[in-house]
Every structure is written in structure tokens, then in C-alpha cells.
Amino acid sequence: MKGPNIVVCVKQVPDSAQIRVHPVTGTIMRQGVPAVLNPYDLFALEEALQVKDRLGGRIVALCMGPPQAEAVLRKALSLGADEAVLVSDRAFAGSDTLATSFALASAIGRLSQERAVDLVFTGKQTIDGDTGQVGPGVAKRLGMQLLSYVCRIPVLDMNSGRIVVHRWTEKGVQVLSSRLPCLITVLEGRNEGRFASLPEMIRAARQPIRVWDRKAAGIEDVSKIGLKGSPTVVGKVFAPSRRSERAECIEWDLEEPEKAATALWEKVLSRQPELAANSSGGGSERKGEEGDSE
Amino acid sequence: MSEAEGKPVEKKGAARRKVTLDPRLAEYRGVWVFVERDAEGVHPVSWELLGAARRLADQLGTVVGAVVAGAPSEALDADSQDAIAYGADQIFVAAHPVLAGYRNEPYARVLCELVKKYKPEILLLGATSLGRDLASSVATTLETGLTADCTELAIDRESRALAATRPTFGGNLLCTILTLNYRPQMATVRPRVLPLPAKDRRRSGEIRKEEIDLCEEEIVTKLVEFLPHAGGDQVDLALAEVIVAGGKGLQTAGNFALLEELARALGGEVGATRAAVQAGWVDHQRQIGQTGKTVRPKLYIAAGISGAIQHRVGMESSNLIVAINTDPNAPIFEVAHCGIVGDAIALLPLLTRAVRGQLVVETTIPTGASASS
């Protein structure tokens, strides 16, 4: 039985937790903000590595981005990816999710010519765009089954091409039975990521990474990529407006915190009188509140 | 929801924009909502979207359409009537056994077919696991623009395009996105970001039963089973009327018990910031903000929360926000309506007692809480 041929899509993103907005101009201050492998993609990579641990096979890490995005591919290699491809071309600049899905799908199509791709893994979203649209878009473009928000893969049988996944939803888990090839977007937090050993890091640093421009990625039609291939246009970017009115704060004496708490609750009730009925002080609806009976 | 609503987007970029729409696209008319539903009922985000759709359609002088899909045995008629009551003029009903339980392939096919047939100019979906999955596939198939997780929807007066505003860069900035020369213009909105419109039973609308060309044999992915989340640890923060949330200022996991007591006294739920969740003090299901849930309860108490933008985007449309923080300059006081500068750890138990009517202070004026018992 041959192991699956897997592609994991990864993206280099600015660490959004460290981004600050200039207090006066309202613009993004990017200086010094480190670029990282999108954290959600690490769960996708780990899921792919676990499949490979069980069934063998091969993992190609695929990234679209500027030349420096090579760093995240080295990280993927150090964690266990077998090969890495960076799709990089100025013509991709300004791509929205639709154009990005076209470029990634084209590159996966090229990889399939070398060796048919059985499974594509992506994170559930990126931390910079937060859209979660690229993975599903790639699946649609490739005509692959889309299995999104996957939290478990209980069955993956390469002989029959059958796969069973648990798909997370707000109300519960859907158990879906599908066929390869398929694209899986992986839910975060369901697997524990591994660490790279020193020899693996050295191997990853030395390993050549294939860099494809648009032609190498099999893209002839430039109207599908970059700004031209992007239906959405950014109209304006602005800092969230602050309410002019500041919170009305209770003046209180440190000696009398009880008074302060009471005053605060009265302030709440004066603004939202119906809360009195909700709270256990005024209603009999809540059970299990001992010592507060009628 | 905020001041950007109804105002044209900034002119600077508009000058370069092609404002005259391709005649092929000009025939797209109407604002549609995909009604997210299952055998148990409709997700409230769909009604919230219908409220927004009504407002947009009135501005554009067009109609509101709603797509109601599911198995023939389900309450599609009742859900269609509800959609009319919440603002829809036309309902497109897709009833087929293949549509029992959500699956990407058949739902995407049905929605794409309906869009091709009726050509709505705007199509809105909830930013849920279902809505995001479906919207991405439909937008890719139709090769049109899709804006995720919008917090505001308006019409750009010059181009008549949907101006969809969403947080970007981790919520640090807002960004208005337009889809100019593609139709339909698609957007998803998270539950509880938009207000629930009033339900008006007197409204009338047209219900069309659509012919659906699907057969189970053609659908590759099968829904084998549905495993509901265990009831016990299920928290529905999005629907809670009162939320008592804590952040790093609470200092230890143990102090979250103080929040729980206050939440219990108020009949509410406990929420938390990302920092508190990452510290392991509270379950991730309770996280509120950019990477957590969006909530709009009647009362939101922020205890020991500084009010980073990533947190504020998840709670700022709450009706009444109360902040308790030691730092008078904490940004939470800019979004809160009232508050107290002080240590939440000391004040929370006292507030709980005040809510329970157990604190009797001489100067207290009797209010609802104490007078009614």
C-alpha cells in the first residue's frame, strides 16, 4: 500500500498579537513585528505528519509569498515535511482570497503532474486575514472534496481511497465519510505540535527549496491572479472609532468598598432596570441559590 | 452600528474606481440572505442578516430574498414565514432529501444555481462553520468577491456597491471592502454583531418552491452521524443576556470563582480574554474577542480587563458595559458606560452581595432588587 501524497499549505504572517497602531496617525506600525508561520497552519502540518507517521507517504509544504517567506518553509521542513515549494512572483501582489486560491490550486495542479496529490491540508484560517476562505477556494478550484474544521481523522484507507473525518460545528460533530482526493482544513488545538531536533533543523537549513514563478506554477492567464484576479477592492482602512464619552466612574472611599459595590449595582439598575428581575436578589426563578429563599 | 453606517466611503480611492457597472452585472438586483437552518430551527444570525438586508435593500430600492433549504420533511414553510416576518420579500425554498443535514457539495450547488437563475446583487451568510464553508465555495465557483466577518454593512453611494467593513490585522484596524465589477457581492457576518430585527407577522411575501436537480448518488461525501456536543460543558455565550468576564487582572485561576458567583447571582455566564484563556484559567469556549466569540449581552461586566482592541471587537456592542480595573487609564474605560477604578478581586464578592440584596448600606436608596423581595 502506498502512502498518501500530501500537500500542506502554509503562510507567512505578521504576528498580529504584536502589531500596534500608531496612536496619532492610526496607521499600522510594522517595524520590528516578527513574521511567523501562521499558527493555525501548524495544526494542519501536525495532522499531516501524524498521517505520515501512520501510513508513510510524502509531505510537500507549499507557500505563496515573497522570497523571505522561505523562512516558514524551512520551519515546515524542520518539523518533518519532505519537500518545500515557494510560489513567488510580483504578479501575485495584491491577490485577494479568490486570486490566492487560484494560484495555490495551480501550483498543486503542477505538483499533481509529478505525483498525484491525495490530500491537501490547510489551517482553518490565517491570523492576518482571518477569512478562512482560501482552503475551501482551493478545494473548489481543484474539484476536491472539501472537509472543513476537521478535528479528527478516524479512518484513512489508501487502498479504497476512503476517509472518515469528524467535522466540528457549533452544535456538535458531523461524522463525514468521503473519498480522496480531498482538502482538509484543520481545527486548532486538537493535536499537540512537535518540536524540531537540531539535526532536523540543520537538514532543513541546507535543503534546497523550489521557487516557482507564475509560469513555473502553471499559470498562463494573468487575469486570474494579483489585483486583476481579485474581485474585492480595499476602499479604506481606518482605526476603530472611540466613543467620545468615557465611562462614568463611581467615586468611592477606599474604607467603604461595600458602599462602592452597592453604588455600582444601583448605577447598573438605573440604566437597565429589567436586570433586577434576572438577578437572584429580586427574582425567584433561579434555583439552587440557598440562603436566598423567599 | 457606528458612524460609518450610511455614509459614503472615502472619496480618495473612489476617483480611480470604475463606477459604471458592466451592463451584464447591472441586471443583478436584490439583497439575499442564506437562511442557516437545520431540523431543529433557524440560526438567529440569519434573522440578524435579514434586518441588515432590509436596510440595504431599502437604500438600493430593491427587494430582500431569502434562501430556505432543507429536507422536505423539515419545517421549511414555518421557517419561510419567519423569514418574511423578519424582513424578506421573496423566499426561495429548496426542498430535497439530499439537503437533510449540511454538506458542502449539495448546498453549494443549490445556492450557485439559484444565484445564477435570479441574479441577486448581494448575498449574505452567517460567519459560522456552515456559512464560512458554504460562502467560500460559492464565491469561488461564481468567481466573485467575498468579505468575511463583517462588522458593518452599508452602501457606497457613488458605486452603489456593498461597503463591507471588517476588522483586519488582528482587530487593530478596520477595513472597508468593495466588490465593484463582480456580482453577487458576498459577505459573512458573525452572530450577534448585528441587532435582531423586530419580527413583524403582518408582513407579506412570496414563497417560491424551487425545482432542485440533485441525486444522492452524485454526492461524494456522506453524512454518517451527528454527535451533539456534550450538554454539560456547552456554553452559549453568544446568547447570554449577562456576561461577567475576567482578564489578567484577576491574577489566578482561583479568582475566576469570584466571576462565577457574580454570574450566577445575575443569571449570566462567565467570559474571558485571550490572555486568561492562554493562562489556562478558563476554558477556550469562554473566550471573547477577535479570535473568540462575539457577544452583545444586555450587561457586560469586564473585571480586570484592560480592554485591548482584540477583546473590544468581541464585546463593544453590548448594551451596558461595566468596567472594574485598577488602572484609570485602561482603554476599557473608553468603551465602558460606567465603572469603578479599583481591584476587581476585592470588589467582585461585594458586587455579588449587592446583586443578591445582601449588602445593606445606610445610604442605599431602595431599588428594584431590594424592593421587590
Defining traits:
heterodimer, A: alpha/beta, Rossmann fold, 2 domains, nine-stranded mixed β-sheet, two-stranded antiparallel ribbon, 15 strands, 28% helix, disordered C terminus, B: alpha/beta, five-stranded parallel β-sheet, elongated, disordered N terminus
Output mean pLDDT of chain B.
89
Q: What is the N-to-C succession of helices and strands of chain A?
A: EEEEEHEHEHEHEEEEHEEEHH
Please compute the radius of gyration of chain A using only Cα atoms: 25 Å
CATH class group of the largest domain in chain A: Alpha Beta
Number of strand segments of chain A: 15
**CATH architecture designation of the largest domain in chain A:** 3-Layer(aba) Sandwich
CATH topology descriptor of the largest domain in chain A: Rossmann fold
The class by helix and strand makeup of chain A works out as alpha/beta
Residue windows where pLDDT falls under 50 for at least 5 positions of chain B: 1-16, 364-373
What's the number of helices of chain B?
12
- The oligomeric state is heterodimer
DSSP strand content of chain B: 15-25%
**Using only CA atoms, what is the Rg of chain B?**
23 Å
Name the beta content range of chain A. 25-35%
How many discrete structural domains of chain B? 2
CATH class of the largest domain in chain B: Alpha Beta
State the CATH architecture of the largest domain in chain B: 3-Layer(aba) Sandwich
